Amino acid sequence: MVSGAVIRYIKELLNPYSEYYSDGSLNSEGMTLLKLIAREVLREYPPSLKPRFAKARRRRDYEYVSELLNDVISSLSQSFQ
Questions:
Q1: Taking the mean position of all CA atoms in its chain, how far away is CA 37?
Q2: What is the rounded distance in angstroms from the CA atom of residue 43 to the CA atom of residue 15?
Q3: Which partner for 26 in 8, 30, 32, 37 could form a disulfide, CB atoms 3.0-4.6 Å apart?
Q4: Are 37 and 13 in contact (CB under 8 A)?
Q5: Structural contact between residues 72 and 49, judged by C-beta atoms closer than 8 angstroms
Q6: Residue 48: what pLDDT?
Q7: Alpha helices, DSSP H only, in the chain?
Q8: Are 72 and 37 in contact (CB under 8 A)?
Q9: d(CA 25, CA 77)
């Protein structure tokens, strides 16, 4: 089960005006949070998300990161049902 801290990290990265973005791209602190989220999510959920996390780390833009994190949230919600 994914910890509450990971859920908070996801919520932080879904906010485009958070301190983790600079000019619409993840900064170094945001990249660290994305790495932590990826580690925890990939530990328990299908590895099919692994290439998407890698692409998000390359692209770093808010649109792709938010799309990925919304998919992660939907995967988490499906596992709770």
A1: 5
A2: 25
A3: 30
A4: yes
A5: yes
A6: 86
A7: 4-13, 28-44, 50-59, 62-80
A8: yes
A9: 27
DSSP state of 1: -
pTM: 0.90
Q: Which residues contact 75 (CB under 8 A, 6 or more apart)?
A: 41, 45, 46, 49
CA distances for 68 relative to 23, 77, angstroms: 19, 14
Question: Please, are residues 25 and 17 in contact by the beta-carbon 8 Å criterion?
Answer: no
Query: Tokens standing for 70?
Result: 């919304």
Of residues 67, 57, 81, the one with CA closest to residue 10: 67
Residue 77 has a pLDDT of 83
Residues 6+ apart with CB under 8 A from 33: 9, 12, 13, 20
